[in-house]
Amino acid sequence: AAPHARYRKAMAAIEADPNQFLAIMEEAGEIIGCLQLTYIPGLSRLGAWRGQIESVRIASAYRGRGLGRRFIAWAIGQCRDRGCSLVQLTTDKTRPEALRFYNRLGFVASHEGMKLNL
Predict the structure, then answer these.
(1) CATH code of domain 14-104
(2) pLDDT of residue 114
(3) Does the pTM exceed 0.85?
(4) SS3 46
């Protein structure tokens, strides 16, 4: 399938799932950022809910203005409002600037992430 069709299919699935939220940031009618929030129920931590932040993007022309910091703070607030007891995210190890950014926001490396492509 064409990339746009695959994105539309993914967005429809996100919209249909009450534990998923796709947020966009706009300025003057232009989309300048996005992120995806996933609310995850679990058995760990006495049945605690977790918030997962993914797909964080800020348009390059808008970086360095504190928008990413404010967007993440907003997402954390959404997780708190939904009753999550922790917020987690992953970032690519090859992006040291992203690692520093999330560390400055209080995120700490606590687990070693692993993937298996299917």
Answers:
(1) 3.40.630.30
(2) 85
(3) yes
(4) helix
